[in-house]
Amino acid sequence: MACLERKIYVAFNNGPWLSRGRLNIRQHISAENTYPRICWIQHILGFTHYVTRSRKGRFVVGRKTEGKRLRNKLKQLNVKLRKMRTEGGRAMVAYLRRHLRGHIQYYGVSGNSRIVARYVYYATFYLFKWLNRRSQRSSLTWKRFGAVVRPLLPQARLVHDLYPKPQWMTQAGSRMV
Where are the domains of the chain? Predict the structure, then answer.
C-alpha cells in the first residue's frame, strides 16, 4: 500500500483563542480503499483531538493523551520514585497510588482507555524497578509484586463518558408500556 502524506499547518480561530493546528491528509492507494482520508489533529489541554469513526460508523472526535506529555510524565515519575527509595516501600506505593488516581481522573475519557492502561502499566513497572533496587538482592519477583502490591494500586478505567446515551434512549421502568 502506497501512502502519500502531507502535513499542512493551518491557523484557525477557536473561540476567543487563536490556535495552530495540523491537518494531515493521508491518501491510501489500494484496491479496497481508493478515497483520501482527511483527519484533523489538534493538541488541547494534554489531549490530541482527532477525527475518527465510532464502532457504528458515525463521525466522532477521538481523544487520546498527547504523546510528548505522556513521555515527560513517565520520565518525571521515574525520577521521583528513584529519589523516594530511601523513604521506604510504603511511601512509594502511597505516592504512586495518589499519582495514578489523579492521572486516571484527568485522562480517563472515552477513547483513551488504552493509553491510560499503558501509563498505569509503565508506572507500575517503574515502582517494581525501584522497589527492587533498594538493596543488593531482588526483593520481589514480578509474580509476587502482582499479588502483593498491584491490588493496592488503582486500575485504569473510564471516568468521563463523553458520548452518553440520550435520556430518551435509556430504559426506565417497565418495557410493557
Answer: 2-65, 67-152
Q: What are the start-end ranges of the H helices in 11-159?
A: 67-83, 89-107, 113-131, 142-148
As to burial, measured by CB atoms within 10 angstroms (0-12 exposed, 13-18 middle, 19+ buried), residue 24 is middle
Residue 38 forms beta bridges with which residues? Answer: 25
pLDDT along the chain (177 residues), means of 10: 34 38 43 50 86 84 91 97 93 97 94 94 95 81 92 92 75 62
Closest CA to 123 of 86, 148, 98: 98
Contact between 108 and 159 under an 8 Å Cβ cutoff? The reply is yes
Long-range own/partner contacts, residues 99-104 (CB < 8 A, 24 or more apart): 99/123, 100/153, 100/154, 101/154, 103/73, 104/154, 104/156, 104/157, 104/159
Place of cell 472515552: 110
Give the C-alpha separation, 39 to 52, whole Å: 7
Residues 89/97, Cβ–Cβ less than 8 Å: no
The pTM assigned to this predicted structure is 0.72
Distance (Å, rounded) from C-alpha 51 to C-alpha 42?
10
Side-chain-side CA neighbours of 136 within 13 Å: the count stands at 0
How far CA 24 is from CA of 4, 21, 61, 93, 148, in Å, comes to 10, 10, 15, 42, 46
